[in-house]
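Build the 3D complex.
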Amino acid sequence: MKIPDRSKKGMTRREFVKKGIQGGIIVTATPVIMSSLLSGCAPSPVAPKVPWQLTPEILQKLLDIALSKGGDFADIYVEHRISTQLLLEENLIKSLDYGVSQGVGIRVIAGEEVGYSYTDDLAMKKLEETARTAAYIAATGIKPSIANLSERSVKKNIIVEIGMDKVIEKKKVLLMQAANEAARAFDPAVKEVTVRYSDEIKNVIIANSEGRLVHDEQPLFYLGVSALAVRNDVRQMGSESLSERSGYEVFKRVSPADLGKEAARQAVSMLDAREAPTGEMPVIIANGWGGVLIHEAIGHGFEGDFIRKKTSFYTDKVGQKVASEKVSIVDDGTLRNHRGTLNADDEGSITRRNILIENGICQGFLYDIFNAGLMKTYSTGNARRQSFRYIPIPRMTNTFMLAGEDAAEDMVRRTRSGLRVRKLGGGQVDITSGNFVFRVTEAYMIDRGRTTYPVKGATLIGNGPEVLTKVDMVGPDLDYGPGTCGKDGQGVPCDVGQPTVRISAITVGGTRV
Amino acid sequence: MDYKKLASKLLDNAKKAGATQAEVYLQSGEELEIEINKKKMQKLNRAAIKGVGLRIYVNQKMSFVYSSDFTEKELDKLVEKGVALANEGMVDKFNILPLPSGTPSKLDIFDSELANIDLQKKIDYARELDRLVFEIDPRVANTRASSYYDGYGELIIANTNGLMHSLEASYCSVGTSPVIEDKGLKQVAYYGTAARYYNDIPPAKEIAEEAVRRASLLIGGEKVRTQKVPIVFDFRVGASLLGGILSAVNGERVFRGESFLVDKLEEGIASELVTIIDDGLVPKGMGSYPVDDEGVVTSTKKVVDKGVLKLYLYDSYTANKVGTKSTGNASRGSYSSRPSIGPTNFYLEKGDKSPEEIIREVSSGFYVFNTMGGGVNPVTGMYSAGAAGVWIRNGQLAEPVAKVTIAASLFDMLKGIDAVGNDLRFNSRVVSPIYRVREMTVSGR
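Done.
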């Protein structure tokens, strides 16, 4: 349950596997458009020769094998992903990386048990073997009925004008250089700048034993800048990123130079930071990325697997007051072109706007097919997976607090002594207790209603459900920020969001007693 | 398929396509994941993995491409794409691939029997582990999961300088996360371990007992008042702090000025009790490999010797930039990523005190079992994290503590280490014995 730092490697207990599971596959010069793989769809003009023959007939046959030993449900996830990554460091483009991965994951559900197997080898023999492995957990021997596959069209929440995959590398390099130069020009204290660019285009086919057949395309890009500022042996870093499921047209709206400047501004402004205070105090958290606190401390507790296993604080709380009346929280997978948006989730269910908390009252949870089935409810379109190598689990998409009416300036004016957090770092939550911890990367002390000096090295610690009851002011300025959410070793892209909020009391952990 | 031959062929093809230098990193293996929750198979996953990553250089311009499709046609395309991309890059005069040098050690890192052990036996281990946690303490209401994972595989690293290494490695790991419920309170704790060989995995009972013990020690933790006290770091938390030091001695970070340990070589940065070692040759170590992830022979190195910083860690590229030699610390996430600098077995050398002694010597202090969020900032050298554990009163473990933070500057922490335990185990890449820091700020009420 954490939004990880880039520097931290994943789970050490699976060291060797880590070396294998992130990989990918073939290289083709242009993206494969999977619709052309499905009978009845005209091949797209840009589609090259496709190396697979995964027709509905073949998918149907694999579902048949998967359920041959019994079980309640089976599904197949076919993925093809092309990715590009560019790295600019020390004013140089250090590397151009390119890879294409493809694979198929087959899952069988029997009651509460899940069998799963995947393959990156798409020979028919391998696919059949994969289906048989997934069937291992089922033992009734009574084959359930399997519906005929019929294709389902999905509403388009992702609309791209100029796909990044069609933009030449040189243009991407220009974007990176603009960010790099702006960061360096911001202040002489800026000593080093790193710019990372990546894009991917993922095509998926999802088929299940209830007859669902969906294919979809999921583009995504990321442009991130980090800047190091050094003065008198004091070092601070700042970072800013942009990530959407948009195309090149996004740069009509957002300038890479602004990202560079913002990263530099954060680093430079923290050079003068003093030691952070310690103890309980009111905290104002800025809009946008600050919503990561809601994602971690609240959002995870609404995920259907924790609800089913009764390990979440919010288990059995629907209809009860769980937050201050000012708080309404939504998970919305349909926001146009946002990083966490999907047309259909990774089980092929249509994404939607799910209300988690409305005016302080708990409304409902986020489900995938597996957990919804066991809870006698329906999927909310929140099944997600990192890749074909992982089973889908209930996850957030774009999760945010709705806007209120309290102006940010009023919040500061009405705070006698407290902390104004302009940027939060990563954080983590224990779902069972709801306890969370967040690193603060940019913050200022508030003294008698005015913002004063910056402070460093602070963390926010508290209990999610408790903090929600202490939100006493909510601003009108809802904004979003991109992140990668980790759970069960799987990372998925998501957006967090919130307006500026004030929490009347939260523990700040610093070094100044 | 003979993967050594395939690797050689890829290098030849890269040269024919216009590469001035090239490197192949080829992996193949199998993995297994079993997760049990309340007698149910929550997850059974078996899969084969293979893939190849190529670093391709054209006149010191670099690209990186990867694939898991080993058909001739696709691999030809891969090489062509790599050369075309390298041509679009920029010249970095420090780009370099290692030369063959030294003799790799023979290490016990591959359990050739692992593949032959019956799947049912592995499933039974996880089932027993899950059953035992409920049996040991009736307050256990659930488990997040009780797991058995293993994997094994082959790795080939070759480059156009004539370097060619192949090795085999394996691992098994087990763990469980019991959730205890008592008087309306809930507490989860994880405990697990890993080994290279199946036979080195401890009995399920040992894992189950320790996991339940941890959950029952922590349940009902509350804030303490803000104060400065001695802190005892449990081995897992100690290792996470060590991970922060690891980032700060990363030669690339140091070169770029993004480390609080810049310009600190030969200076005292920690107490004399602190010796930190990076050792690729630890018998059966989880980070032991005869060569690193670009084929440089690994060795045993002191990073900090009795408190004095001795060494930054390098791969070939960064070493070349700084004008030194690789320390054998090139590391990759998988075949689909380029190497960067990482650990082999990175650890704090064990001391002479038992964990009990270290606790007994504390009149009032905090024994930290878990930390959350935050951690070491390798740039500024500040440490802060949320913490949970048990208060120590008059040398005895007393009441549970949670929802507090601990914070200090890393220099103060390292210099304040006044006891190191003798309980070091190599069950992960970064490991630590228990140790004690003289004084840190605990922020609570």
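Residues 119-136 of chain B form the longest helix (18 residues).
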